[in-house]
Every structure is written in structure tokens, then in C-alpha cells.
Amino acid sequence: MPIEKSKVMNILKKYIWLIDTLIRSGNRGLTFEEISEKYSNSDHISEGGSYALRTFHDHRKAIGDIFGIDIVCNHSENRYSIADIDDLKSPGFFRQWMLETVSINNLVSANDKLRNRILLEKIPSVSPALAPLLTAMQEGHTVNFTYVPFDKEQTPQYHDFQPWTLKMSRRRWYVYGLTSEKGMRIFSLDRITNVETTGNTFVVPDDFDAELLFHNTFGAFVSTREQPQLIKIKVDDEQAKYLRSLPMHHSQKEIESTPQYSVFTLFVTPSYDLKQELLTMNAHAEILAPESLRNEMKDLLHSMLGKYE
User: Fold this and answer.
1) How do residues 125-166 score in pLDDT, each as one tens digit?
2) Which domains does the chain have, with CATH numbers?
3) What is the pTM assigned to this prediction?
4) Per-residue pLDDT tens for 57-86?
5) What does residue 92 show for φ and ψ, rounded to 5 degrees?
């Protein structure tokens, strides 16, 4: 049965509001009465309604299931707060990005005057597949959908797909999970259409670790054939400043620094996405190792040059 998109997005908006409200309250947290009052005063969220205690607890559970964020209660004072709130601010942590994003979204939604003064990058795959897949993940239901690959004419149908995890990369959302037809696969959400939930349920294996799955990956695609390698990149002083301020990968290390250049290492699988990222550095970067990647980049550059001759 198709999922009503507007209803799902409205629920997600309430989750976002509750997370942001509790983050702003810090370690002390808020009583349910304080939360309820803030809810009623947030017309863009409450739409004039009240916050029932049962609904609040339903939202607590859903936030834990979807985002892995636990809302705990200090029973001695009956105050609710985000568990391990300081850990959420760890550099590179997924929830840090998510919380910053939803906080901005919440602020903009609450103040129409800011809408035309805050410009965000459009994520083409946010709609319409993201919301129903999030709901399916929360409820443990499989989905059917149509996929439209860029490199093929046919549009295959997938049935009873188990959405295990979602990942964003290069302004696109991807879903990784188990297909009944071809085993474990990853799909770009902007190429998924006609998402329908089924009555079939699934359980993600206890030993599945999404962070570990993508730990040595640059981008979204997981390779079962290639192993991660130590990649050494020499960049000029200008590019080095960019890499220091915004590392390419959590494994990035600066192993040599001079006034003219620096050398960085990454421990990743040399994926298509990595090669595309390296090409964006133009003449500011040189691959020193491994030799196989250096040669691949050389071939790519020769091929590009040939198009201009």
C-alpha cells in the first residue's frame, strides 16, 4: 500500500522539533509540561493542537529507532533530556550533522522572515523516496519499488527489499539493504520510484554495523572485490589549507608539511567517487601511491586531454 507522503513528512517534522528542543535545553532537560507548552507555542509544529503524553512517548521511541538518539527521563525531577548529549557533538559524527541540519530547518520553519535569506543546497533525492523508506526502516517492513539506472534502458522492479541503512554522499541519498533478487545492493534514492510498503517484516541482523560497513569507503558504494589501501596525496599549500579545514575522510592524516606543499594519506578503497573527488583538485594534487591508482589517474587525465585536442 502506498505511503501518504505528506503525513510522513509531518511526523518527521515533529521528531525534528522535539530533538532540537531538547538539544537546546542542554543536560538539564525539560519537564513534559515545559515541552508541551513549547509545542503549543510552536504553531508551525502543533497547528494549534496540544501535545498528548502518549504521543510524546511514541515520538521518543521513534526517534530512538530512526536516529539512534535516546530521550531519557531523570525520574527524580521528571525531566527529559538527550542521553550522551556531549557525544553527539563529536567531530564527524553522523548525528552531529543531522542535529545541525534539523536545528537550522526548525529555526527557518519557525520564522518565515528568514526563508529568503538562508540558501541551502538542494538534495535531489530527498523526495519522494526518503520518507517512505525511513518509515519502512522504523517499522521493519519490506518495500517494493522501481529502479531507473542511468546506464541501462530497462527499469527493474524490486520486491520485498529490506532497507537496512541510509547514507548521504555528494548531495545524494543512498539506501543499502537486502534484495530478494540479487542479494545485498545499494540504490540511489533519486532513481527509485513507486515505493510501496508490503505486509512482510524483516529484522536487521544484530551484528550489522552501518558505520563499519562504510568505514573504509569514500562515497557510497561498498566494494566486495577491492580492499582498502593507503593512498598518498601530495598537494600544494593552497589545497592543503582546504584539506585541513575539511578533511576528505576520517582516516586523513598529514604526514609531511612544507611551505610549498603537504602530503596527506587516506586509508580507503579507491572507488569511482574517490577518483572523481581527486580530479576536482586539478593541478593542485598529485597521487604518489599506490602506483595502480597513480596510473589510473594518469590514464583518466590523458583521456580528458584527448577530448580537447
Assistant:
1) 555 788 788 888 888 999 999 998 877 777 788 899 999 998
2) 5-114 (1.10.10), 130-213 (2.30.30), 229-306 (3.30.70)
3) 0.64
4) 999 998 888 777 889 999 888 999 988 776
5) 80, 0
